Amino acid sequence: MKNYQKKIVFLILFELFLNIHPIQSQTSNDINTYNWFDTTVGRSNLDINNGVPHTNSFRTLSTDIHLYLINKYELGRVTYENQTYYDVKLKYDIYRDILVLNPDGGSENIGINLIQNKVSSFSIKDKNFIKRERKTEDIPEATTGYYEESKIAPELVLYIKHHKDMQKTIYESSLYFTFKENNSYFIDLKGKIYAIRGKSDLVKLFPEQKKQINGFYLLNRELRNSDLDQFMKNLMKYTFNSLSISSK
Known about the structure:
- It is globular and about 55 Å long.
- α4 runs antiparallel to α6.
- It has 6 helices and 13 strands.
- It has helices at 3-18, 28-41, 199-205, 210-219, 221-226, 228-246; strands at 51-53, 74-80, 83-93, 98-102, 112-114, 119-124, 127-132, 145-153, 156-161, 164-171, 174-181, 184-189, 192-195.
- The strands form 2 sheets. An 11-stranded antiparallel β-sheet has the order 1-5-4-3-2-6-7-8-9-12-13. A two-stranded antiparallel ribbon has the order 10-11.
- 17% of the residues are buried.
C-alpha cells in the first residue's frame, strides 16, 4: 500500500479514535495533523521522495545571477500525486522548469528533482504555482509547465511563466553562465487563454479601458522597470476594478 493510502487510512482511524469530526478545509489543525503523520511514519519514507538527484553544473560569475527563483531552499507546500505536503523545503529551477525538493534532514547541497507530471501545484515564498498542460486551443507560447497563478476575479486569472535566458561568457579563459529573466504573461479570461506581450494586447481585450490602461502605464513606469511581475499583477487588478466600476 502506498504511503498516501496509509495516510488516509491512518487519519480516518485517528479521527475515529479521538471522536472528532473531519475537517472540511485546510485549517492550521489540518496542516499540523498531516505534519505529525509525516513525521511519525518517517519523512524519508514518503512517496514524495521520488526523483533523480538535482545537479547544477552552471558556473556563474555573480551569486545574484542564477537559474533559480530563489537561490536557496524555502519552506513551502507541494501537491504530489494528489497528496499535499506542508513545510517541505523547495527550490524552483526556472531555467529548466524543475521543482527541487531538499529531503528532510538532508544537507542543502542535496536535492531531488520532483517528477513534473506528478506535481499539480506548489507554493513557495507567497507565490502559488500550478502545472498547466498545453491544450490544442491554447496559443503556442503557453507550453506545458509550471505557472505562477494570480486569481484576480472568478473569470480572470493572470499566469506568469517564469523563464530565464542563458548566456555564455569567457572570463580569464574560463566559461561562465549568466541567466537573464524573460518571463511571459497570459490571462485566462472566461476560460480562454490570451498572451499579454505588451500594452496593445491588453487594449485589444479591453478597448473600453484604453484610457485607463494608458494612464496606468504612464503612472507606474518605475514599477514596470523594477518589478514587471508586480506591475502586471497590479495592472490586471486595476483593469478589472475599472471594468467593474464602468459596468455599474
